Amino acid sequence: xxxxxxxxxxxxxxxxxxxRKLLLGGVEIPSxxxxxxxxxxxxxxxxxxxxxxxAAALGDIGLHFPDTDNKFxxxxxxxxxxxIWQLVxxxxxxxxxxxxxxxxxxxxxxxxxxxxxxNIAATLETGVEKISVKATTTEGLGFTGTGEGVxxxxxxxxxxx
Length: 161
Ligand code: MG
What we know:
Largest sheet: 5 strands, mixed
Strand order of the largest sheet: 4-1-7-5-6
Bound molecules: magnesium ion
């Protein structure tokens, strides 16, 4: 018996600015600064989308949701993720597991991680035990360290059904 597994990675960065909401994994996190973006700027969900598209070889987020299209202005990234998951599902895949790392200096996001996992699992129609979200800082170094931006990276595995 052969098993068809497909690995995908995703990476995203958004600039942080005063007076914007900080949404991570579909959770609004109280913060002085939030993501500057055409959509809601959810860097974690954007990295998840790119990892799914990568694993299924379906292009990237910019191809599916161009930021020149006003239809996607301030759109919830949960809606975008749902749309991409439909495409991946139609190709006959289920999620084996997903592991994400958020890279930011502040605020501390530990209290919100479980809700992020629940949101991602629900959108990808899987159990929360298959979803991992971690966070790290860059020890004050670089754009994430100074709070100029937030980054996320994701690796995931799809299995053919
Ligand atoms: Mg993005």
